[in-house]
Design brief:
- The protein has 320 residues and is α/β, with parallel strands linked by helices.
- It folds into 2 domains: 4-155, no CATH class; 160-307, Rossmann fold, CATH 3.40.50.
- The protein contains 9 helices and 15 strands.
- The chain has helices spanning 4-16, 59-72, 108-118, 168-180, 191-199, 234-242, 255-267, 272-275, 291-319; strands at residues 21-30, 40-44, 49-51, 76-81, 96-104, 123-127, 134-137, 145-147, 150-155, 160-165, 183-188, 203-206, 222-227, 248-251, 278-279.
- It has a 6-stranded parallel beta sheet, with helices on both faces. It has a 5-stranded antiparallel beta sheet with strand order 3-2-1-5-4, sandwiched between helices.
- Helix 5 links the parallel strand 11 and strand 12.
C-alpha cells in the first residue's frame, strides 16, 4: 500500500512529464471500509495509477471515472457501494465510499505539498468540491475531514525509525520497518551492522565512541529504538533522545535491565517525567528472543503507538 508521499510524488512526476492527472480523495465512509477518509489515488492521463481504496473492488471503476473527469476538466463527487448510481459495483462489506475527483493540470500545489512532507513538516491539502487545490501548513488540532464546505486532508511526514545498537536486532528491525514503508536509519558501533544497512539501501552511521553526541533527527514522527547488549552505550543516547520529540522511545532488555537503565538515567540527572517516556521492556510479544520475532514485535508496538497519536489528533480537532 503506497503512503501519501509516494502517491503525491507519483502525481508530481506525471505532471512534470507534461501529463494532466486526477487526484482522487476518499472523503466519507459509510459502514466499514478498507481505508480511512483522506486516502488518495492518483491517476495520470496515460492510465497509470498509484494508490488504492479497497482490495481491488472499485479501483478499475475509479480509474475510468478519473479519466472521464479529466476529459471533462471538472471536479466531481461519486459514491460507490450502497446508494450509488453504479448498481453493478458493490463493496463486499456492504458499505459505501464517497470520492472527490480533482483534475490537476498545474504542478505547483503538488510540488509544495511534496516539499513540505520531504522537509518533514505536516501539511494540509485543501480540496474544495469545485476542483481548486491549495496547500497550507498544518494548524494544531486540525484533522482530516470536511470544514466550511472544503475537504481538508492532513498529512504527516513519513514515519521514521531510528535503530541504535549492535548485533542482529537492528538489521532485523530495519527490514521490518522498510517493509512497512517507514524511513529507516541505523546507528551502530558495529561496522558489520552499518555495512548490512548500507547494502539494504538504508541510511547508517558508525558510533565510534561512548558519550559522543549524534544526530538522531528525532522529530514527532520518529521512533527511537535502543537495541544494545552492552548497555553502557545507552545512557548518553537516551538522554539525547529524551531532549527531542520522538513519538516513541523504546529500549531492549528485561524488566530488571530496564530498572537498572532508569536508575542510571536518574543518576545522570534525568527527570522522572522524561524517564517515564521510555518503553521497556519493548515489544508487544514479551520475552521475544529471536531477532526477527523481536523486530516484528517492536514494529507492531511502534505502529500501534503511532496510530494512537493519530486518533488523539482527530479527537482533539473534534472537541476544539
Amino acid at each position: 500500500m503506497a503512503d501519501p508521499l509516494t502517491i503525491l510524488r507519483f502525481l508530481r512526476a506525471r505532471l512534470r512529464e507534461g501529463q494532466h492527472a486526477v487526484l482522487v480523495t476518499l472523503t466519507d465512509v459509510t459502514g466499514s471500509g478498507a481505508r480511512a477518509p483522506g486516502a488518495h489515488l492518483a491517476v495520470a492521463e496515460d492510465g497509470r495509477a498509484m494508490g488504492s481504496f479497497s482490495g481491488g473492488c472499485v479501483e478499475a471503476a475509479v480509474i475510468a471515472e478519473a479519466l472521464d473527469a479529466l476529459g471533462e476538466g471538472k471536479a466531481r463527487q461519486v459514491r460507490y457501494g450502497a446508494g450509488s448510481r453504479y448498481i453493478d459495483i458493490r463493496l463486499p462489506c456492504g458499505g459505501a465510499i464517497d470520492l472527490l475527483f480533482t483534475p490537476v493540470t498545474c504542478v505547483d500545489a503538488i510540488e509544495q505539498m511534496c516539499r513540505l512532507l520531504e522537509q518533514r513538516w505536516p501539511a494540509t491539502l485543501v480540496l474544495p468540491p469545485d476542483g481548486s487545490l491549495a496547500v497550507r501548513p498544518w494548524v494544531n488540532g486540525e484533522a482530516t475531514g470536511w470544514a466550511d464546505g472544503r475537504f481538508l486532508v492532513r498529512h504527516r511526514p513519513t514515519m521514521r525509525v531510528v535503530a541504535l545498537g549492535h548485533g542482529a536486532e537492528p538489521v532485523a528491525l530495519m527490514r521490518v520497518a522498510v517493509a512497512y514503508g517507514a524511513e529507516a536509519t541505523v546507528l551502530s558501533p558495529d561496522a558489520g551492522v552499518v555495512e548490512d544497512a548500507w547494502e539494504m539501501g538504508i541510511t547508517a552511521a558508525r558510533l565510534d565512541r561512548l558519550g559522543r553526541s549524534v544526530d538522531l533527527a528525532a522529530d514527532p514522527w520518529t521512533a527511537v529504538v535502543m537495541l544494545f547488549h552492552d548497555h553502557d552505550w545507552e545512557t548518553p543516547l537516551l538522554e539525547q533522545a529524551l531532549e527531542q520529540a520522538p513519538f516513541f522511545i523504546g529500549a531492549m532488555g528485561s524488566r530488571r535491565t530496564h530498572a537498572e537503565r532508569c536508575e542510571r538515567l536518574r543518576d545522570a540527572g534525568v527527570s522522572e517525567t522524561r524517564i517515564a517516556r521510555i518503553v521497556g521492556p519493548i515489544g508487544l510479544i514479551k520475552a521475544s528472543r529471536d531477532p526477527a520475532a523481536l523486530a516484528i514485535s517492536i514494529m507492531a508496538q511502534i505502529v500501534e503507538t503511532y496510530g494512537k497519536e493519530s486518533i488523539n489528533e482527530v479527537r482533539h480537532a473534534q472537541t476544539a
